[in-house]
Every structure is written in structure tokens, then in C-alpha cells.
Amino acid sequence: MFFRCNSDEVALFVRIRGTVITRMYLVLLAYILYVSAILVLHHRVYPLGIFNNIIGVLGIIISLLLGFRTNLAHSRYNEGRKVWSNLKTTIRSIARTIWVFAPTNSTRDIVNKKSAINLLDLFCYSLKHYVREEYADAESDLQPMIQSVPKFEFHSKNNPKESMLAKFDSALACQFNPPTNIPNEIIYQLTIYARTTLANNPSLSPALWRSVNGGITTLESILGEVEALQRTPIPVCYSSHLSHAFWIYLLAMPFQILLKLSWWTIPTLAFTFFAYQGCISISNEMENPFGYDYNDLVSSCALCYKLHTID
To answer: Which residues of 198-218 are buried (b: 16+ CB within 10 A; e: fewer)?
Structure first.
């Protein structure tokens, strides 16, 4: 019988990029040195072994805590994935409706339509930075798109004739003074655009623009969902208790198994630490899916860049 090696499995096994090994190897080396020091003291200075009746009980407790932590982190990651997928679908739907059905009777109409499309593109990128708590407009991927939208002016009155889309005469902006919540301001301006376009073109189907407003409402809902994911982390009391129990368990384990395993205690506990700490590191990375880590979701925002190519 011949066994064929699965190249994908081998590639995953030897892969370093995108894994948590780089996060934990220093701690793993420190733990190996700790266990080695205990073994040396046990064999050459004074016996340090104790009974291991407590290992099973502590192991069960740690497994339950770690399982709940991993499941909770995965649910947050999965929720973020659904929200980001909904974001891309909604932006494409609104862009398609505006690009196909918005009037082009004058140069102003064409410029307004292009600006609305650019606002959709800008919403995706600004939301990426907003969930990372980067509120400035100086980001390298924001600047090119900011230059293709008009000056942002927040108005207390919801009057389409006072909107920035009714005021600007060029596709290029002279100034840009963003508020802290740039995505929310973009939602406001898109709503004004939809209302202004319908008011100035009575022949347009109201149902068509109601669908645009529905998409804008979905963008607002997405903004609220990502804010909830970003600003409601796992309770500190749970994470702290898991950390305390985890380290007490692993620091006490060498004393409980060295009588049976002797020098084999070192590789055994190294593998145990790698497995447990790996799960915790994975949970910490998945808890916030909008950061800069390799496995985070916001890198998919690059797909929205296709909207920026519309001209």
C-alpha cells in the first residue's frame, strides 16, 4: 500500500507566517528554561516532586475556561466576517443602482453621480480606519479618494439645497475637514444626495430611490455593528481569571509529573505549553478581527477598491 503525502497539510505544518508561533516562542523558551531549572534542582539539589492527584481536576477546569474563550473569540471573528461581507455587498448594490439609474442630464448630474460613487468607496476605507481608532484623514489610502470628493460640511438643517453636493462645482475638493466619525458623515451626505436627486428629477421612480435609502440604512447598521464588536471586548474579569488559572496550572505542573517522566518532563511540558498558549494566542487575535494582524478581516477592504476605478 502506498501513502501519498498531502502537500497542503505539509505546507500548513511548516508554515510560520500567519501563525501564532512568532507571538509565543519567547514565552515558550522561557517556560522550557523554567522546567529545566526545576529538573536540575530536583536531581542535584533537593527532590521537588509532589503527588499529581490535582492535575486532572485543574486540567478539566482549564479546558472548560479555554474552550469557552476560544468559542467566544471565534463567534466575534465570524460576526465580523459577516458584517464585512454585508458591507461589500451593500456598497456594490448602491453603486450599481446609482451608476445605472441616476440622471445624467447635465454636467452637474454627472459630477454628483461620480462623487456619490467615490463616497461609497471612501466609506469602506474610512470604516477600516475608524474601527482601528485611526481618526485622521492623513492615511495614505484615504488621501487619493478624499481628493475626489467635495468639501465636507456638516449642516444642522437637513436641506438638500444646502448640501455639499448641491454646492460644489468641481470633482476635486479644495479642503477636507473630517469629523471624528467620518463614516457617519458619509452616510449623511449620501442620504442628502439621494433626496436631492429625487427632488430634482420627479420622473425617477420613488421605489428605486427607496432601495438606495435602504442600502444607506444598511451601511448605518453596519457601522453600529462594527462599533459594537470593537468597543465591547470580552470581560476583563474572565480573561484575567483564565490567565491566572492557566499560569498556576503550568507553573505547578513540573512538580507533579517529574517523578514519573524525569527528564522527559521537559519535552512533554513544552508541547503542553505550546498547545495551551497557542489556543490563548489564537483567541486573542480572533477577538478583534479589525486590526493589523495577518488574519484580520480589514485586508478584504481592498476588494472595495474596484469601486474606485469607476470614472
So the answer is: bebeeeeeeeebebbbebbeb
